[in-house]
Amino acid sequence: MSKWAVSFWLVRRKAARTGFDYSVLRVDIDARLNKRFKGYVKEQVQDRAFHLDAYDFNNADPDDVLLTLDADATDFHRIVAAIDAGFDNPRAKEYSDLLSALAYVVVFESGGERLFALRKINTLNNPKKAVTRQALFFDNHKLVDVEDKQVFMIDPRFDFFVFGGTTFIASKAAFETAMNFREGIKEKGNELLDAFTSMDFLSDVEPIRTYVGENLRHLRKLAAIKNAGYFKQPDYMTKLIAVVKAEKWDLKIVGGKIIVEEETMELLLKLLNNDRLRSPINDEMFDSSAKTAVAGASTGA
Predict the structure, then answer these.
(1) What residues contact 234, with CB distance under 8 A and at least 6 apart?
(2) Mean pLDDT, 10 residues at a time, over the chain (301 residues)?
């Protein structure tokens, strides 16, 4: 990446009628910072062996895994559109522009290819963080307390990268916050509950809506159920009800319908996402939302 051009952008976001509007400020950087950003990408991505895994609403925050997602499935294309306005974007002029932004994006460009690296701005960028580290500056032949300087701290790690139409996610939580994924998750949940209503295998859908509310963990569960789509498979719900009866699990079945009750809601959502699994080795049963299909294994169909 040594010959790639580097530019630095602040991302601002404001609520709109449908989702959010994004705008950017361009920020001038010196040659040393240019080199430092390239070093950060090399250290975070190029110098490590990452396993790639498809993004799912139930993924944990990754460690040596980069989660992948189609870039068009996020709001990032709106940020790219703002950056593409180039010099029509205003330049950051005030120190407050740095601290009030949503995120910063570093763009690496060479031969028509672009790599975008985003980091959400948080308390780590605030000068108060430097104060807690008792940082001092040697400025104009004297030591200066950090509180007297306009400090903006750059973290050596980026939250996610976008290259060639794919998003590579290093921090799932920061990615979802920056890209407004809570609203997308809520939308998927509402679509799922509408589908449940039309299928008529539950006594009532509204208790699920009330139970989930704004709870992000519950919203993720609904989104995962919709994405997996087990409930749409032929005979899945018939088999689910038969297994519940055979195993004497706590769901109440009346007239061929599952009675939706708050005290058994967790179990209901687990079964709708096929999260209750049995080991073929020792017949032990587990609840697990993370599932990777085994190649060549029988589906039992």
Answers:
(1) none
(2) 88 83 91 90 84 79 82 88 92 86 94 94 63 56 62 85 94 87 82 92 94 89 90 93 94 94 95 91 85 64 44
The pair of three-digit structure tokens given for residue 194, joined into one six-digit string: 């509408």
CA distances from 146 to 10, 129, 240 (A): 23, 10, 62
- pLDDT of 123 reads 63
Give dist(CA 261, CA 254) in Å, integer. Answer: 13
Using the structure block, give the residue that is written with the tokens 């120190």.
Answer: 95
Instruction: Determine contact, residues 129/27, Cβ cutoff 8 Å.
Output: no
Residue with tokens 């993004």: 55
Q: Of 198, 169, 192, 193, whose CA–CA distance to 181 is shortest?
A: 169
Decide if 6 contacts 106 (C-beta within 8 A). Answer: yes
How far apart are alpha carbons 86 and 97 in whole angstroms? Answer: 18
pLDDT at 301: 44
Backbone φ/ψ region at 283: left (φ over 0), alpha (ψ -120 to 50), beta: left
> What is d(CA 135, CA 127) in angstroms, rounded to the nearest whole number?
10
Tell me how far apart the alpha carbons of residues 259 and 202 are, in angstroms, rounded to a whole number.
Answer: 6
pLDDT of residue 99: 79
Q: Distance between CA atoms of 20 and 181, rounded to whole angstroms?
A: 11
